[in-house]
Protein: SH3 domain-containing protein
Amino acid sequence: MTFIDTRRVLGRTTGLPYFLTRTGRRLNARKLISAACLGTTLLTSACQTVEGLSNDLGIQQVSKDDACGQASTELREAQGYFERSIIQGAVIGAVGGAILGGILGGGDGALAGAAVGGAAGAGGGYLAARQNEASDRSELNNTVYQDAQSETGEIVRALAAFNRVRDCRLARSETIKQQFATGQLTREQAQKMLDVEKRRYSDDIVVVKAIAGKIDERHQEFVTAVDTMAEDNPEASALLARAQEAEENEWKNPDAVATTGSAVSQDMVVASTNLNVRAEPSTTGAKVGLLEGGTAALRTGPDQDGWTPVQLANGSNGFVATQYLSGYEGSAPAVNNQSDELTLASVTRSVSSDADTETRTVAVLYEGREKRIELDRLTQTAEQEENTAFSLDG
Structure:
């Protein structure tokens, strides 16, 4: 039987005063949720709205005539993923909060507890749910590790989708401008088309900002879980503290070096000959660039049926044939892991594959934060482009 210590989880994540958490010492998670959904009018209503809330998160439809529709749809699918994740945690948190409120003060306490629990859901709800499902500590650790891996993968997916949207929107802008320059479009026609692309780009930026916000909320769920799980693991606790310090450094310093020699050798590839960079992993995909022989590019994901996703030095993204790539053999700026200026890369890449599960969870979780920061910087670039790229005079 597994339990959640609500005094520890809710007290830490919400900063509630001790008198609000001291009575919630050990509550059986399954009974807590079941009692909430079946035993009170308030939370029966809350539980009945879970499905409705999820149904309301339908992916926004992209216009059929949008040339960048596929990438834009992928971006909205990523938004749907992160929206659903947060609602599930918040509902569980509200359930726990209402039961805790009932323990403290009866009916009125339940109402207050639901409000408190809803706010704490992003921290305690996820951990409570996973504890309820796990048969022992080892299973809980492995599940949270797998969840962190999946979460980081989804962040990478969202970043890649926004990169593709950005590349497509800017390419469309250049095409329209070229058609105007060659007389295929009048000025009025061209600017009208550019206005449409700008509006769509603005919508994409709104979506990616929403995704970023949800990523941050979800991250707090994982931090709460990992912090609790690592209380008796000095290595994982120390790594978590260093990772948090490194993240703070990188938010403050956009120009911070975020790679080590080992990170570059794993993430960079070199073309053995001139390679077409394509929008899709196929020989029929549109050509979006050229990776010249002997030139390095950043590998942004795993091989996809013989095609590797890469990012070129100019920031554009696409796919190249894997068989013509080799590992990067150059040297990279060394990063002193003992430096006061820690980076996320130096922290996460310092963890070996045979480290314990809690420590590896911290590492993979903060690999996701690297991509989250990258997403933020790409969004800032997109906002600057938005004001100039879609004007004939820009």
